[in-house]
């Protein structure tokens, strides 16, 4: 996905200028970066957590962490990739903490029964059909955290495998495995729901 598309039309030059100012201690420049990326960060967090309160917390805490560590950004990747990795990590931390409190091992995250009444949908231009969005959102709850995150980043947010690997802190091959296994699980779930609906 191009940087310009991820930033609502802001060029990489504009982002770079704001980033340098923010790294120099200009909090207003960082505030502008927050304005540019806040919606994408929030929806990414929601796509992973499927909980608006948790998504808001994750996005807010991610921007705080990014502000605290802005000097650590070296430019090895795009700023958005660096920021979204923080969001992914914060979502993972919050989900793990929630599941520890509730006594659910992280490995069982993919087996939690879906809240079929929620009806919440993903925000994605890639998926046109609202019913499909709802169905996919419910089915994604049956995936492991790694599978759900990889599929969310790839198909709902249009990131490349390389960008996903950077954000998740895993190899590109592991990302491909998460995507493959997640799609296989979704296919099985789709077959189950079709059989159940007959």
What is the level 1 CATH name?
Mainly Alpha
Mean pLDDT: 80
Number of strands: 0
Cα distance spanning the termini: 39 Å
Shape: globular
SSE map:
Blueprint: H1 3-6, H2 12-23, H3 27-49, H4 52-68, H5 79-101, H6 130-140, H7 145-156, H8 161-168, H9 172-197
Helix pairs in contact: 2-3, 3-4, 3-5, 4-5, 5-8, 7-9, 8-9
Explained architecture:
The chain is 69% helix and 0% strand. The chain has 198 residues and is an all-alpha fold. The N terminus is likely disordered. The protein starts with a helix and ends with a helix. The protein has a single domain, classed as Rna Polymerase Sigma Factor, Chain: A (Orthogonal Bundle), CATH 1.10.1740. It has nine helices and no strands.
Structural descriptors:
single chain; 198 residues; Rna Polymerase Sigma Factor, Chain: A; 9 helices; 0% strand; disordered N terminus
Brief overview, please?
The chain is mainly alpha-helical and 198 residues long. It contains nine helices and no strands.
